[in-house]
Amino acid sequence: MSDLSRFAINQITTRDWTLRQAVDGYARRGVAGIGVWTQYVDDAGLAPAARLIRDAGLFVPCLCTSAWVNMTDPALLAAAIDENRRRIDMAAAIGARCLVVVPGSLAPGERDLSAARARVEDAIAAILPHADAAGVVIGLEPLHPMFAGDRSCLNTFAQCLALSDRLGPGTGLVADVYHCWWDPDFADGLRQAGPDRILTFHLSDWLVPTRDLYQDRGMVGDGVIDIAFHRGVLDEIGYDGPFEIELFSRLDWWLRDGDETVQVCAERCAPYVGSRRSGGVMAAVP
Ligand code: ZN
What we know:
Helices cover 43% and strands 12% of the residues. By secondary structure, the chain is α/β, with parallel strands linked by helices. Strands 1-2-3-4-5-6-7-8 form an 8-stranded parallel beta barrel, surrounded by 6 helices. Helix 1 (19-28) links the parallel strand 1 (7-10) and strand 2 (33-37). The structure holds zinc ion (ZN). Zinc ion binds at residues 141, 176, 202, 246.
């Protein structure tokens, strides 16, 4: 029997399922957690969503995502920061450990990436007291540089680690192997972060060729990422947190039946998500 007690599925993986379908579908397969997206909570209603997740006994490694702060207009920026406070409250209500920051990047017409990054830092600093009061950690997730023009100007693990250092307690790292596997400094970044600052570890695989810039993440095992190596690094530093598969897959997994996707996720991830004692792949090797 696989040990799935640290394993969560990020619900974008079963994009067409409602929150209720995802909660039921994951719990049915013995998956212990669900990574939640805000739009599904808004659809279900906050209180019913929180009750649904709690009653199923699922843990929530993260709420995805923060609202973009890619605007220079002060009134629009203030509204975006307020929206982020609302999402922090949502994270607290559903028991999510962290709110994943995906902050956008350049404002329309802007070409100054440094300015965008400074704006993001200021915006996070502005919401941090609210997050602290709510007991929600701000999760800094570096996104692959191919997203630097629009989705996020946070692009390397080292950059996010330095940002976390500057912002201080109440911030941590969301490590996603899809975004960081290519980075020669990723493993050292994980070691430098240490086990407690890594809030959740996102799994998927890099397909060659990648057919869609945004939505062609591969099932674990179908691509070129050495997942076992990364699990080994996490064991080495004593990481005890969640593993969470997250698939954006317009051409494959989103077209399949959700039950099939969940089953294959559990099967493919099982070798990499066990507890350190009872044998993830690396722990089983002397
Ligand atoms: Zn991710």
